[in-house]
Amino acid sequence: MSVRIDETDRKILIEMQRDASQSLDDIARAVGSSKTPVWNRIRKMKEAGIIGQQTVVLDPEALGFEACFFVLIRTSEHEAEWQKDFLRAIRARPEVLEAHRLAGDIDYILKVRVRNARAYDKFYQALISEVRVHNVTALLSMEEIKSTTMLPLEA
Fold first, then answer.
1. pLDDT tens string 73-96
2. What residue stretches are annotated with the HTH asnC-type domain (predicted)?
3. Where are the chain's structural domains?
4. Is the pTM of this model over 0.85?
5. Can you name the CATH fold of 7-47?
6. For the sheet containing 135-140, what is the strand order?
7. Residue pair 86/99 in contact by the 8 Å Cβ criterion
């Protein structure tokens, strides 16, 4: 479902992406409106699915999750049952922050956050015990240069 948003909606979304914990008064002030119309717009955007779950962004390294791996998976299995088992397995693993099915030589890429290499190996062993994969390549991120959830709404 495509929902049309106007410039005020866009400003509200930019403010909420920047800091969703700010008060309704602060958002209204930032977008040049009053509280009730802003609240109504936010409610409508939530109902339309534009605004989803609101969460807190945590610092993984501050919490001891120092290793980020990008896991490239190739499979020779393309049956629906294998895919169902694979999706169930990765959705059940809290270490998997993102999972994408790809076009090209690699079938899937996972972003996996763990405390260290030993923890990654435990994740890997558990995954391959649940589903058969043809090839797995793990790439350790040496440095996170940019990470954001903010969409470029100002365009």
1. 999 888 999 999 999 999 999 999
2. 5-66
3. 7-47, 67-140
4. yes
5. Arc Repressor Mutant, subunit A (1.10.10)
6. 96-101, 108-114, 67-74, 135-140
7. no
